[in-house]
TrEMBL record:
It holds the Pfam family Frigida. Keywords: Coiled coil, Developmental protein, Differentiation, Flowering. PANTHER family: FRIGIDA-LIKE PROTEIN 3-RELATED, INACTIVE FRIGIDA-LIKE PROTEIN 2. Residues 4-31 form a coiled coil. It comes from Vitis vinifera (Grape). The gene is FRL2_0. This is FRIGIDA-like protein. The keyword Coiled coil applies.
């Protein structure tokens, strides 16, 4: 119970005691014929009590007002801190000279038209999203995945619990996939979004709460079972391996199986980063080429 709640409770208690005192005083007055010196009237006591109570209630209201002001200030300071962190990131962001094409972070086609992802407007929006809506946002901007890595990285850094946020965004990696209204996103689009999030979460490297790690481990075992024996979709393998790397789950699985799966994606441009996230050494996984 807060200090204000305690004060409020005691004010109510004082009011009930005042009624008890009034009854006792009236009982005393009924025997006042033998007490010639009893000239005090209940109205005098009532006036005194009312003045004291009014003074206390006034102070109580002032305390409540100050508490509300402090809460508002705390929220404003927190919002300002996030805005400053965003501005700092934008100032330190490398500038790509005009005419130089930026290379995508993964094998995702880049839309040469209007970039629908505005770091100024949408990055702040991403920070307030839950996992499901974050994935939907990335699905809708699938053509820009190659240019969104740094923005996603910055958004995750500003999240209070990026590991939980990304884990919640893994919904629909296997069917049924998330829908935009009544239209279901293609599996490849959903998996690219999930892989992008897992890659950037690995870059952030946040602390992972035990409960979140347990949830991630359960999800990893589910994905592993759904991949089956024959692996034909490299995005499935990438998603699974990045999940292990991002949530530090490599030790939960057989290393030889992980190496075998890694062979399916060794030509991926992020293979070296993935190998490091999985704790694979050059001697165990060989040299990884980047294409």
């Amino acid at each position: 119970m807060s200090a204000l709640d305690q004060i409020s409770s005691k004010l109510q208690f004082a009011e009930s005691k005042k009624h008890d005192l009034k009854k006792a005083f009236e009982d005393l007055q009924s025997h006042s014929s033998s007490l010639a010196s009893l000239t005090l009237q209940w109205e005098d006591l009532q006036t005194h009590f009312d003045l004291v109570q009014s003074s206390i209630e006034l102070q109580f209201e002032r305390l409540k007002s100050k508490e509300i002001q402090l809460r508002s200030l705390e929220i404003a300071l927190d919002r300002r801190a996030k805005e400053l962190e965003l501005k700092e990131w934008q100032l330190n962001r490398p500038i790509v000279p005009s005419g130089v094409k930026s290379e995508p972070l993964e094998d995702v086609p880049v839309n040469n038209g209007i970039d629908r992802f505005s770091s100024n407007a949408n990055l702040r929006f991403c920070v307030t999203m839950d996992g499901r809506n974050l994935q939907l946002f990335l699905n809708e901007n699938a053509d820009n995945h190659g240019r969104m890595g740094n923005e996603v990285f910055a958004a995750l850094r500003m999240s209070a619990d990026p590991a939980k946020l990304v884990l919640d965004a893994m919904e629909g990696f296997y069917p049924p996939h998330l829908k935009n209204g009544v239209v279901e996103f293609e599996g490849a689009v959903v998996r690219r979004s999930c892989v992008l999030l897992l890659e950037q979460l690995t870059r952030v490297g946040p602390p992972i709460r035990p409960q979140v790690r347990e949830e991630a481990a359960r999800l990893a075992h589910e994905w592993k079972a759904k991949m089956g024996v024959e692996v034909g979709d490299s995005l499935e393998v990438l998603g699974f391996l990045w999940l292990l790397g991002a949530y530090r789950l490599t030790s939960d699985f057989d290393k030889n199986e992980i190496l075998k799966l890694f062979e399916n994606v060794v030509q991926h441009r992020q293979a070296n980063e993935l190998a490091r996230a999985l704790g694979l050494t050059d001697s165990s996984a060989g040299e990884f080429s980047e294409t």
